[in-house]
User: Fold Cationic amino acid transporter C-terminal domain-containing protein from Dendrobium chrysotoxum.
Amino acid sequence: MAENPKEDLQPKSYWRLRHDDFFPEPSFRSWSSYRSALSQTPHRIYDRLVGRSTDATELGEVRRRSENDMRRTLTWWDLTWFGFGSVIGAGIFVLTGQEAHEHAGPAIILSYVISGISAMLSVFCYTEFAVEIPVAGGSFAYLRVELGDFAAFIAAANLILENLIGGAAVSRAWTSYLATLINRPPNSLRIHTNLAKDFNLLDPIAVVVLFVTAAAAVLSTKKTSYFNWVASAIHVVVIVFVIIAGFAHAKTENLSPFLPFGVEGVFRAAAIVYFAYGGFDNIATMAEETRNPSRDIPLGLLGSMSIITVIYCLMALALGMMQRYTAIDPNAAYSVAFRNVGMRWAQYVVALGALKGMTTVLLVGAIGTGRYTTHIARSHIIPPFFALVHPKTGTPIYATFLMTISSAIIAFFSSLHILASLLSISTLFIFMMMATALLVRRYYVRGVSTKKDLVKFVVCLVVIILASVGTSAYWGLRPGGWVGYLVTVPLWVAGTLGMWLFVPKAREPKVWGVPMVPWLPALSIGTNLFLMGSLGGDAFVRFGICSGLMLLYYVLVGVHVTYDVAHEHEGVEEKPLRGKVEHEGDVDRSVA
Assistant:
């Protein structure tokens, strides 16, 4: 993978399409090279299973593959409002009505409490990693460092799936609320066809909205932040109105029966509405553009998510008290609820606020998705062409529009119901991996941890994961039972307690860290797996099919490109840059 030195002296145009920008790896230079690579697949898979990146590599060498830097212009204020803009959208305005009507009833507030607690546990994990490794890749970069390339690939594939489906789901919800705003049925603006159920309502408006928000996202991150401030402030006013007006028309009798679908329905709804919290991981991808990551990320991420959790619970309770759960409209719950209590004009305020909220969700989602994809392309899992950052805008134009086009295709065909269940399981799986990675980061460092400590740590971690899986499986198979929990819950406690008492920590966070380790990360593993078990079987079937396709891509492409990149400098004498430190903001960076 050596490059032509004469080529390096000439500035490269951003607008280019060359073979080496897509497949520069030796394994893909010819069919014979590719056949030779395939013959080494078992060896290469093992190499990538045990291989690890480092903080310095992600911050230095990997980041430089974008050729141009993203600009450090964001502060904690920007991140806080990006948190509002990224999270509050289709989840609360659409899924609340859908899940209250179908699974939880008035107890939808408990579903938001449960999923909110689980989300906050994940936020803690993300915050520590984003402060320590402030790069655009988010969880993909963190997992490359702690769990290796294979685990990072699984995360990358699910991240791409999560962002594709998230954008498609929100854009389709945007169309439903636009129809409500102009006083028409939610599906009236879609094209009705004879295709299979859940795929028969074509949505060209969703496609247009996706492309408009993506175009805005690539112009300038700071200018996008200005727009997001204003739009999110307006949205907060609408939310305050919804809460006050909702409680003004509240009837306590609408809360009875509180659990019409039982506890099982509450947890199943919690697993679905978890989608409403999923946007916060986009904020972690902006760490590379944050002026002072150690201060701004904890303030922006934890602050916005704490407020959002309270808002969600209040809005869910207001809806449940304003309208009986059987009468809630699953497509435009709040607008229809206000119309039914005599505030016909209020439905337009709500619909307009929902449209604004979904627009900022799509806008911030386009920013986050572009940065995830950029860092994934930096590792060559997808062609490095998509890692390029535009020299003038400082934004990843190619990566952003790659994801936008893919999401638009899904949005054109698929219903919100199909999208939400698949999105939740993908999101929960990634958050579970993040909690696992945090435990690995704290308790194992190569060259520091002894073999004895490593064995103790692995045993405790396996017990925590297996106990969590057992609890989730027992809940899914026997929702009314309790005997199984007498085994799985004490096992989880034993594994966590064993790690706390008998495994010494190999590393402490430099600036900001998750409190109560290993208890909070272990609880995050347990809650995420439990919520996964609360989803229906169809979600697991779709997740299994998608995972199978991901693994096929990894065996045929991913393992070979990452192997080539990892070994590209073998036999080449490198300049002794290790140990040199760059200072950017408050971040000390060892350049690999």
Q: What stands out?
A: The beta strands are 191-192, 201-202, 581-584, 587-590. The CA atoms of residues 268 and 535 lie 6 Å apart. The chain is about 65% helix and 0% strand. The radius of gyration is 24 Å.
